[in-house]
Amino acid sequence: MEYEGIVYRPPSEAYSLIVQVTIGCSHNGCTFCGMYKDKKFRVRELKDIISDLEQAKLDYGVVKRIFLADGDALVLKTSELKIILLKIKELFPGCERVGVYTTPKDILAKSVEDLSLLKALGIGILYLGVESGSNEILKSINKGVTAQNLIMAGRKVKESGIKLSTTLISGIGGREKISENAIESAKLISAINPDYVGFLTLMLESGTPIYKDIQNGIFHVLTPEEVVQELREFLENVEVTNCIFRSNHASNYVSLSGTLPVDKDKLLSDIDITLKGKHGYKQEEYRRL
Ligand code: SF4
């Protein structure tokens, strides 16, 4: 197996075989993201990807889950993904799920029929960073798409039957846009109704444009209490059915999880206990990406 640079994967893929299909992210422009800044985006040669899969077969034999890295393997043409997924089926007949990071543009470039074919070939979950539902915030972080684009992309995935995991970022609008981030994100998630919605909390990476804005006093980072208030406002306003909610990522100040809508009241009550000072916030030095 060959890995190039730092490889990122969602927490739920901790025990998956990770195979790099692309190097970096095809967008690589979000102002808060430093994950792939040291990588020039490219799609790996198919022969190298196949060779990694064959090596993994020799090394591990049985594999139950596979994650195709880096930043957005869904950018590959459907015909290229088909070759990779058929090879996975041949080598790992017991593989239960293939997971992939995607950008909204990758999804929009595919038809529902393409996505349904990819589901039939093994892709079980797509991870989509929506970051915020506010058009102003999406523009300010250079996400490259509008909230409407994100809704269209999310609904396409749902229509195909592939599970959709979405992530939002607490504090991504700064102190001036706490309510806007909460309410517009709740509207976006309500419109998509994904299978999973997770919150990360903004982490500051030196060298990113947002980091420079903070140093120049243009962007104001939320306190832990403000992060939790923003989360509360989101939860109050979101309307989904059977959606697993998590804000238990290493970057979060307070760990919460449940299923929406059934656990909404419990989640709000846990937040209120935290805000009343009866629960502590994770210390800054223990927060991670
Ligand atoms: S947040 Fe996602 S889409 Fe944006 S640059 Fe980072 S990896 Fe790419």
TrEMBL record:
Its cofactor is [4Fe-4S] cluster. The keyword Metal-binding applies. InterPro entries: BchE-like (IPR051198), Elp3/MiaA/NifB-like_rSAM (IPR006638), rSAM (IPR007197), rSAM_horseshoe (IPR023404), rSAM_sf (IPR058240). Pfam families: Radical_SAM (PF04055). Residues 9-247 form the Radical SAM core domain. One of its GO terms (molecular function) is metal ion binding. The keyword Nucleotidyltransferase does not apply. It comes from the Bacteria. SUPFAM superfamilies: Radical SAM enzymes. Keywords: Iron, Iron-sulfur, Metal-binding, S-adenosyl-L-methionine. This is Radical SAM protein. It comes from Clostridium estertheticum subsp. estertheticum.
